[in-house]
Amino acid sequence: MKLMKSIVFAAALMGAGGQVLAADQFVALPSYRVGPYGAGGSGFYGGMIDYFNLVNANGGINGVKMTWEECETEYNASRGVECYERMKTKNGGATLVDPLSTGIAYGIVDRVATDKIPMTMLGYGRSDAANGKVFPYVFPLITSYWNQAAAMIKYLADKNGGYPKLKGKKIVYLYHDSAFGKEAMPVLDAQAAQYGFELIKIAVAPPGSEQQSQWLQIRQAKPDHVILWGWGVMNSVAIKTAQRNGFPREKILGVWWAGSEEDTIPSGEAAKGYTSMTFNTPGNYPLIDEIRKKVYAAGKGNLADQGRIGSVYHMRGVTLGVLWVEAIRTAQEKFGKGKTMTGEQVRWGLENLNVDAARQKALGAFGMFPTVKTSCEDHEGSGAVKVQQWDGKKWVAITPNWVVGDKALTRKLLEESSLAYAKEKNITPACMQ
Amino acid sequence: MLYREAGQFKTSYVADGQILPIRQDRVALCALLAVALAAVPLLASPYLLSAILIPFLIFALAALGLNMLTGYAGQLSLGTAAFMAVGAYASFNFVARIPGMPLLLAFILGGLCAALVGIAFGLPSLRIRGFYLAAATLATQFFVIWCLTKIPYLTNYSSSGVVTVQTMQIFGYRFVSPQAKYLLVLGIVSLMALLAKNMIRSNVGRSWMAIRDMDMAAEVIGFRPLRTKLLAFAVSSFYCGVAGALYAFAYLGTVEPEAYSLDLSFRILFMVIIGGVGSILGSFLGAAFIVLLPIFLNMLAHALGLATNYASNLELMVFGGLIIFFLIVEPHGLARLWQIGKEKLRLWPFPH
After folding, report:
1. Which residues in chain B (141-170) have CB-CB distances under 8 A to chain A?
2. In this complex, do A85 and B47 lie within 8 Å of one another by their Cβ atoms?
3. Interval B336-352 mean pLDDT
4. Residues of chain B neighbouring A7 (CB-CB closer than 8 A)
5. I need a labelling partner for A80 at 20 to 30 A (CA). Which of A44, B187, B264, B342 fits?
6. Do both A123 and A196 map to the same domain?
């Protein structure tokens, strides 16, 4: 009971001490920097914080400073829910959240609607949440797993000379045997039926550190392509095992969570030629230089290793930081410049986001991510991705333009799935004003 | 002075057989329950209720389940999280597939499904024991999770294998607010803890302890080992199953196989070891230690203004250090510390 008391006491203490000025925009960062996925989490949340620091150094959003709090989730759903509950009422209430974890996102997906805190899921989570009529507070921004899977098939078709050429081809789907790994299956199954390629699904038990039998199976099947839907340690093991089995890495196409420096550098030479999806164009941008100059030079940088600035995860974090700030800016244009926005107002901002080429240029991030234009029907705003290749030292984009797959198909699937969810939860699909 | 049983005479067998023989204990427990039932829902913040007290109670129930099996019946198990998963998925399916299914009945049926799985995986306990049995129960962990990811029927054909659970509803009342959820969980956990306490005191509990202490001798004096061990597995799994269902319905709001990983099994085993093997109170103390301490350390680090990456690592170090410290100081767990404290109080101020 003593422990309880001290916790109650500490909570009360922190509640009292956490008052901030009115002109602050508070956001919650349920991050993970320790545990099995810490490498990805530290880069991603580091990028977001770097961008917030840059915005604050430049005077904030029309004078409103970003404030945030981190809470370690260890990528664990239970801890994540606790973190969300802890942060949501702090400093007058959190106005944005992104747990970067499917498990945590599923755990809080119902809560964010009740608490009126918009949640973004940048490149993960429920693909059907793109339907804003059913999920008003959830935003799978830029692109979802389903659009990624469709874009993968589009890319492979282009590589072979068009969709009809896919007929009779063999594609292995090597996946992390979890919710994340299974998310893409409806799209891949539908496309396999449509274009007549053979889809061989091979599961890898998490965490995926042993894949000898799977690659033996792949070698026997002699596939034309392997889609690697992996996460964490599974990726580098897959690349190394492919090399050991003499399978060309050029034929492996990774999901975007299998396409970072953290996946390829541990694989060494074996990773050379390996391709993966991404929703950032690798390279350097004026915005990243500005972060170097204004944030890191001032000693406010979040990454301990400055060599990671501009890496895949870091850039992904910066991208989400840009989208959040743009959403708040958009909301301010409607509800009053220089004011702190509430969660509901930020939600409106996210739903009316328009980060076009001109805006990207103004931010110094032209081409860093696809243009994002959201609406009530489309909380994703883009669905475009690129394919990148590891040249042994760095990632290089090998599709000059953004790739978009069969969006009519993914739209149909997401309508079906989200309406089933609405029925289950007694939600009447409607746009919020 | 205050904690003394002098003058408390027992004049009937009923009085002699009560759960808490000392009047002060009874008063303290009633006061605690009154605070938990009335004061806490009124005064505690939604955060305290929904993110701290609810998981604490649920894990205490799971630890209680494991404690009956490991602490009282002496059968080491590493499959706790799997039994929880069975309870959660079974309850979800009962509610989803049978129209008008009462929620509490779904929890009970979920627990019964877990009990059946527990019996099936408890069968090897007749021939093997100790670490070997632990390895056999480990199979439950892998088998159940494998089933859940492989059989789409169990996840209601959800494409990702993750399902959001239904709103808790009993007699038309929807348990949505943190207060309502907390009271529901508290009610179920208190009732089941009382049931467990009585089971332990009865013939069933004695048969378990006899098997634990020396199964050969237990058999000689007439306890049937197979029945006793399987009963322990069934009851323990039932408790874990209900805890799993509560974890999904009252806490996470979602069911996914990864939430019931081997890691969770270990954590519940640690709760039992740190709280006190073979003690009802120990299950609660252990759950409090394992669930609340990391959160508390994390908050403390925040209050001290430490950078997050240092804070998280520091949290792990302090937590690990404290576990080692406690186990060295008191290998029988927190419950034993409490017991020693009570004995000292009864002798105070004249220790001998």
Report:
1. 149, 159-162, 164, 166-167
2. yes
3. 83
4. 48, 52, 292, 295-296, 299
5. B187
6. no
The amino acid occupying position B41 is P
Query: Residue B174 to residues A128, A185, A364, B179: CA-CA distances in angstroms?
Result: 26, 35, 50, 12
Tokens of A17: 């001490």
Test B254 with A111 for CB contact under 8 angstroms.
Answer: no
What is the DSSP track for B67-131? Answer: IIIIIIS----S-HHHHHHHHHHHHHHHHHHSTT--HHHHHHHHHHHHHHHHHHHHGGGGT--TH
A356-401: pLDDT as tens digits = 999 999 999 999 999 999 999 999 998 899 999 999 999 999 998 9
Instruction: Tell me if residue A346 falls in helix, strand or coil.
Output: helix
Are A270 and A304 contained in the same domain? no
In-domain check, residue A6: no
> Same domain, yes or no, for A102 and A200?
no
* A203 lies in some domain: yes
Instruction: Report the residue of B142, B151, B159, B306 to disrupt the A interface, i.e. the one with the largest count of A CBs within 10 Å.
Output: B159
If contacts are CB pairs under 8 Å, which of residues 282-341 in chain B contact chain A? Answer: 288-289, 292-296, 298-300, 302-303, 308-309, 311-313, 315-316
What domain range is A154 assigned to? 146-278+388-408
Per the CB < 8 Å rule, is A89 touching B47?
yes
User: Residues A152, A268: one domain?
Assistant: yes
Going from N- to C-terminal start, the domains of chain B cover: 45-260
Q: Is the same domain home to A271 and A394?
A: yes
Q: Write out pLDDT tens, residues B285-300.
A: 999 999 888 888 888 8
In a shared domain, residues A196 and A288: no
pLDDT tens by residue, A167-185: 999 999 999 988 788 889 9
| Number of domains into which chain A is organized | 2
